[in-house]
Structure formats: C-alpha cells, structure tokens
C-alpha cells in the first residue's frame, strides 16, 4: 500500500462483498464513514459472531485459529459459513490502510444480515475493523485484580442446553460487560466465572490458566467456555519449554492456591492475576515477559 491509500483516521473498516453491498472490491474506509444498516440483525438482535485479534508489529496473531473459531461460532448459530478467504484478505487490506503502530486490534464481524421489509434476510454481512488497542503495559507487568462471579448455570450447559450458544463468540456481549461493571463495583479489574456446580470457567473476555509447579492447566472447553486462541498459543510455548500443559476441570481452590495464574485474551494477551477476591496471588513477572516475547513477539 502506498501513503495515498492510508486512511488518515485512527480506525479503518473494510466491508466484505455481499449483504446487499454493490461493490465486490475491498475498499478501506475511515470508521467514522463506515455505515451498517439499521436493520442488520447484528445491530437489532446481536445475531452474529465476531473475533478480536491482537496485532503486533503489523502481524495479526494466531490468525488461522481465529478464522477457524469464527467458522465454528457461525456453525453453532446456524449462520451461513463465513468466507474465510475474503475475511483474511479484508484483514490484510485494513491493516495495510491503518497507520502503523506497535500494537493494534483487528475485529472481524459476521452477521446474519439485513432483515428486509418483507422479513427475508439479505445477508450475510461481514466487515473488518482495525483499531488502536488500549495500553496493556501495566496489566501485563503488574497483573490484574480478579473477583469470582456466579455464572448462573451448570458446567454441563453446552450439552444440556446448546441453544444458549456457550462456546460461540456471539455479538451478544451485554452480559459480559455487565460482569465487568460488577468487578469495578467490587474494586477489581476483571472476573472469573464459576458455574453453579462449583467449576472454574473463564472470564467475560478471557481464559484462565493456573500454574502449580511445572504444570499449567486451563478449564476444558466442553465446560461451556470459549476455546481461547491466546491460551492455545501460551500452551504451545509452555510445551515447547518441556513443561506440562493440560485442559482440566478446575475449582476456585485451584486458582486460590496457584503458584501463578493468568487471564489470556487477544488484546491484552497475558495478564497475571495478582489478587483473587482481595487475597494476593504470586506474580511471576519474568516468566510472563518471556512468554509474551516468545509466543507473541512482544518485547518488554
Ligand atoms: N472467553 C471469552 C468469553 C472471550 O470473550 C474471550 C475473548 O474475547 C476469550 C475467552 C479469550 O479468547 P482469545 O484468547 O481467543 O481472545
């Protein structure tokens, strides 16, 4: 991309063809000029799926894992399959059009589409947005304060009530945001959910990893949680170092007694958990910095 094609605005959006859009070309537009139809089911119902991808030095992290998960989420919602090649091209186009920065965030949206006056669906619609992420330096270095919150359902929900779409990254994140506000009310930064049968699950936007000695564990994905791309990359690095990394059924006690624990998510990457319900947890700053560099190319 030449300078002339760089969108001067901070955020860049690229729409995918389809969903009633005339042009098949991937054209970057400034976010302020990007318009989604008010009858798009993503807007009116949250009926769609998305991905958030961290970008370090211009490189989208774990892109194949994110594309696979987008397709899996779409399948769970019985949406038309997303055109993954078009999404990948749109990611590259949007990134090339954005002002370079050490870190960015790229989001992929795949909606059921626009509901026409005749109540047919003119879809699917898809778009990609590149934005400057928040500054996560302090959270990565010093850690985050976490509270446990009741998720209100059992850990076998994905099997007993699949229509609740646990494990899909849907556009309905109002509950996740409400949980984060509750954490703030309790003077904490983040949340780990617990099922009604006492199983440790995930955060509203992150997976949890606990370390006891040389063994790293994360909750199993059949417990109604999202399969994390950041946690998967973390485990690749842990295993490459000859340490043990496994999926397990964990309890709050496993977190409270951990030698170290992290919240893993695409933008923040690894945030050590420095307290749980007000009680301090050990933070391994050197190990965290090493994995951030090795797994994600993030230099301190
Ligand atoms: N769990 C939930 C509910 C999430 O929303 C997210 C990310 O947004 C994660 C886990 C972490 O997934 P990833 O590391 O792929 O961002």
Element string (H = helix, E = strand): EEHEEHHEEEEHEHHEEEHEHEEEH
Number of strands: 16
**CATH architecture grouping of the largest domain:** Alpha-Beta Barrel
Structural class: alpha+beta
* Average residue-wise pLDDT: 94
Main beta sheet: strand number and arrangement?
8 strands, mixed
As a percent range, the share of helical residues equals 25-40%
CATH fold title of the largest domain: D-amino Acid Aminotransferase, Chain A, domain 2
Strand content: 25-35%
What binds here, in terms of ligands, is: pyridoxal-5'-phosphate
Poorly predicted segments: none
So what's the overall shape? globular
What is the fourth-level CATH superfamily of the largest domain? Answer: D-amino Acid Aminotransferase, subunit A, domain 2
Span between termini: 29 Å
CATH class of the largest domain: Alpha Beta
Gyration radius over CA: 20 Å
What descriptors fit this protein?
28% helix, 9 helices, D-amino Acid Aminotransferase, Chain A, domain 2, D-amino Acid Aminotransferase, Chain A, domain 1, binds pyridoxal-5'-phosphate, single chain, 2 domains
